[in-house]
Design a protein that fits this description.
The chain is α/β, with parallel strands linked by helices. The chain contains 15 helices and 12 strands.
C-alpha cells in the first residue's frame, strides 16, 4: 500500500468513526431564524426542489460531497454513494484525485460513471497539485473519470498539521487564473472545512473563479483528522488549531458580495432545516459528507437513502413553511440573524432582510 493509499484509508476510518467534530465551534446555522408563513398558498408536493448545476439537473439541491478515493474501500464507498446520487437525483463529488497522479492503478477507485451515467460528478484536485500540473494533464484527469466540473480544494490548515503535508502555498491565485481561462470545464474553488472569507472571495472572483464551495467550519474538522494521525511532534499543533475556521453560516455571508454564479454550502449540514437556512443565506445547493458516510457504515445503502430522503423531506417542509415555491424563492426569503452571526453580517456588510 502506498503512503497516499494508507492516508486515504485512515481519513475514511476517522471520518466514519473518529472523534473529529469541531469541539467549541458550530456552523452558526442555528443563528438563522427563518420567518414562518402561516398562509403559504402552496401544496407541499408541488414545491420545486430541482436545480441545474454545471449542466446537470438535480432533483434536489443536494450534493454528496467529495470524501475519498485511491483504495479498495474508497472504491466501494464511491460506487455506492454515486449510485445513490443517480437514483435520488443528487450530485456526487469525488475525493482528491491526487492518488491517481502517484499510482495509475488507483483510477478505478474514482470511476463511477458505470453506476451514475447521468448524475452530476465533480472531480477534485488539491490547489498545490494543480499549480504544478499543466492544464492538459488536469483535463485528462477529469476525462478519465467523466467529471462535469473540477473542485480545486484549498486546505492549508489541514496540510500544515499533516506530518507529511504541503508547506508551500504560493502560486495558487495564478493557478486559478490559468484554469479559469484554459480548462474547458467549470472550476470550483473549494475549502475543506475552514470556510472562505470575504477577502478570499474577492481574490478568487478577480482571478476569474465563478463557482465556490465554502466548506465552512462546524462539521468535520479536517485539522482534527490530521491531528489524530500526525506524528507526536505535530499533534500539539493540531490540538491547538482543532477549531480553526470560519463557521459555515458566516462564510456564506462573507462570500455574498462577490456574486459568484454558484455557491455550494458544505460544512456541518446535517438536516433539511439547516439546508434551508443555507439557501436563505445565498447558497444554490448544499453538500453533505460525513453524515451520509456514517449512515452508509451504520446500515448500508438502505440507511443512507433513508437519511437523504429525510433531509429532502425536511427541506421541502421548510420551504413550505416559509412560503417558498422553489429553491430560488428560498434564497430571497425573509430571515433574521441572531447572536454571533449578526457580527459576521456586519463584518461582511450583509443586510439583514426583513
Amino acid at each position: 500500500m502506498t503512503e497516499i493509499s494508507r492516508r486515504k484509508d485512515e481519513h475514511l476510518e476517522l471520518a466514519a468513526h473518529g472523534d473529529v467534530a469541531f469541539r467549541g465551534k458550530t456552523t452558526l446555522l442555528e443563528c438563522v431564524e427563518l420567518v414562518h408563513d402561516a398562509l403559504p398558498e402552496l401544496h407541499l408536493e408541488q414545491i420545486q426542489l430541482d436545480v441545474r448545476l454545471f449542466g446537470r439537473r438535480l432533483r434536489a439541491p443536494l450534493v454528496l460531497a467529495g470524501m475519498t478515493g485511491g483504495t479498495e474501500r474508497a472504491r466501494q464507498v464511491n460506487l455506492e454513494l454515486a449510485s445513490i446520487a443517480e437514483e435520488c437525483g443528487y450530485g456526487f463529488g469525488l475525493g482528491s484525485q491526487r492518488a491517481m497522479l502517484k499510482d495509475p492503478a488507483a483510477l478505478g477507485t474514482y470511476q463511477v460513471r458505470s453506476v451514475a451515467p447521468s448524475a452530476l460528478v465533480l472531480g477534485n484536485l488539491g490547489a498545490v497539485q494543480a499549480a504544478r500540473m499543466p492544464t492538459s494533464e488536469i483535463a485528462a484527469l477529469l476525462d478519465a473519470v467523466g467529471a462535469d466540473a473540477l473542485c480545486v480544494h484549498l486546505n492549508p490548515a489541514m496540510e500544515v498539521v499533516q506530518s507529511e503535508g504541503d508547506r508551500d502555498f504560493r502560486g495558487i491565485e495564478a493557478t486559478f487564473q490559468r484554469l479559469a481561462v484554459e480548462l474547458e470545464r467549470p472550476v470550483i474553488a473549494k475549502e475543506t472545512g475552514c470556510g472562505l472569507s470575504a477577502r478570499v472571495a474577492r481574490r478568487l472572483a478577480a482571478a476569474g473563479v465563478r463557482h465556490v464551495d465554502i466548506s465552512g467550519a462546524g462539521g468535520t474538522s479536517w485539522v482534527a483528522v490530521e491531528a489524530q494521525r500526525a506524528l507526536p511532534a505535530d499533534r500539539e499543533l493540531g490540538q491547538r488549531f482543532w477549531d480553526w475556521g470560519i463557521p459555515t453560516a458566516a462564510s456564506l455571508l462573507q462570500v455574498s458580495s462577490a456574486e459568484f454564479h454558484t455557491v455550494i454550502a458544505t460544512g456541518g449540514i446535517n438536516n433539511g432545516l439547516d439546508a434551508a437556512r443555507a439557501l436563505a443565506l445565498g447558497a444554490h445547493a448544499v453538500g453533505i459528507a460525513r453524515p451520509v458516510l456514517q449512515a452508509l457504515e451504520r446500515g448500508g445503502r438502505a440507511e443512507a437513502v433513508r437519511f437523504l430522503r429525510g433531509v429532502e423531506r425536511e427541506l421541502r417542509t421548510a420551504l413550505l413553511l416559509i412560503g417558498a415555491a422553489d429553491v430560488a424563492s428560498a434564497r430571497s426569503c425573509p430571515r433574521v440573524l441572531r447572536g454571533e452571526l449578526r457580527y459576521w453580517a456586519e463584518l461582511s456588510g450583509s443586510a439583514v432582510r426583513p
